[in-house]
Amino acid sequence: MDQVTLRIPAEPAYVQVIRLIAAGLASRLKLTLEDIDDLRIAVDELATYLVGLHGREGTLEVHFMLHDDRIEIQGRGDFAEGAKVRTDLTELSRIILETVADSASLQAIDGAPGFALTKKRPSEVGLS
Amino acid sequence: MTSRVILGKEEVREIFLAYGQAADEKERSQLRERLVEQYMGLVEFLARRFRNRGEPLEDLVQVGTIGLLKAIDRFDLDREVEFSTYATPTIVGELKRHFRDKGWAVRVPRRLQELHLALTEVVGTLGQELGRSPTVAEIAKAAGTDEESVLEGLEVAQAYNSTSLDAPVDTEDGGSSSFADLLGVQDEQLENLEYRASLAPELAKLPERERTILYLRFYRGLTQSEIAVRLGISQMHVSRLLNRTLMRLREAFEEE
């Protein structure tokens, strides 16, 4: 398993960086374009919960874990005290994430708000 | 289609001379027609170079013909250049302007526009060949570039406020289909209470096509490619619309 760690300011503009790295790593995993797009949507969806639309004081630490057949992404917010972070997904988010990810959830990581996400490479894509 | 008689240099020159000296509008227009006919092949040749941008070739030929007419009017025999040499930049200019007017925002750098166009084409072709969505490596190979450029090109599609990127491929769908038309039949799931309850307020504000795409992707589980076929647009266009729609919805939720 290869691991990549990223720490970004908790600003929406930096969510793109998570998305880019996720896409780059997914490409190493030989995911198809549509799966990569799904992954990006999932990253956007979950990261937006943590960072919010207008950003927060603090940082977001993201771990990418590249397995043979899947990529796992975990985000953990390191925010200033009193940051109001939703801890439950909206109905729409849940439906979206069910479609685009193999598993996705908001969850506390070491007591801080976080998310976890897994995207597998579909087995029928046995590419050289 | 009229049969095309290719005239020699001297004959063309004579027509241009006569055109310049035509006594009345009727004669002028007859001569103009002969010249247009003569150079239609050139217009078609040039229009074909733009055909992978999502516009029907016939439309492009028409646009190119406007350029040809302008060139005919402005051509000066004293210039001692071949008319085709003279007309080519005018025709190409007209075609380029057509795409520009269709909404390519100036803000998207040309290099990225071109990369994006190239990728859209490659993705479409590969998708058909493979019967599935291609991988980044496959796209890079087919496009003669590296994976990093492909990833960059894909990100560009999302990063730029994509009305500009949508415009050139937009006409593929020919417009005029209602939500129900696109679905084929009124789907009973549309009446699904959960669907309505969770989405109704935000959904109502979305353009119909965006709403359709959202519904097909997340409630019917169609892939982007399947939706693309259904709506007659490219998969990458579906991807952009989808990403943009989700961004809008996120904003709507935040504002609650």
What spatial form of chain A do the alpha-carbon principal axes imply?
globular
Helix/strand-derived class of chain A? alpha+beta
Low-confidence stretches of chain A: none
| Largest interface: pair, residues per side | A-B, 31 and 40 residues
Count, helices of chain B: 13
Instruction: Give me the secondary-structure category of chain B.
Output: mainly alpha
CATH topology of the largest domain in chain B: Four Helix Bundle (Hemerythrin (Met), subunit A)
Describe this structure in words.
Chain A has 128 residues and is an alpha+beta fold. Chain A has one domain (2-120): 2-Layer Sandwich (Heat Shock Protein 90), CATH 3.30.565.10. Chain A has three helices and five strands, in the order E-H-H-E-E-H-E-E. Chain A has a five-stranded antiparallel sheet with strand order 1-2-3-5-4, with helices on one face. In chain A, helix 1 runs antiparallel to helix 2 (33-51) and helix 2 packs antiparallel against helix 3. Chain B is mainly alpha-helical and 256 residues long. Residues 161-194 of chain B have low confidence and may be disordered. In chain B, helix 12 (224-231) crosses helix 13. Helices cover 71% and strands 0% of the residues of chain B. The longest helix of chain B has 24 residues, at 25-48. Chain B has three domains: 9-101, Four Helix Bundle (Hemerythrin (Met), subunit A), CATH 1.20.120; 107-167, Winged helix-like DNA-binding domain superfamily/Winged helix DNA-binding domain (Arc Repressor Mutant, subunit A, Orthogonal Bundle); 174-256, Winged helix-like DNA-binding domain superfamily/Winged helix DNA-binding domain (Arc Repressor Mutant, subunit A). The A-B interface holds A 16, 19-20, 23-24, 27, 30-37, 40-41, 44-45, 48, 52-54, 90-92, 95-96, 99, 124-125, 127 and B 123, 132-139, 147-148, 150-151, 154-155, 158-159, 194, 197-199, 202, 217-219, 221, 223-225, 235, 239, 242-243, 246-247, 249-251, 253-254.
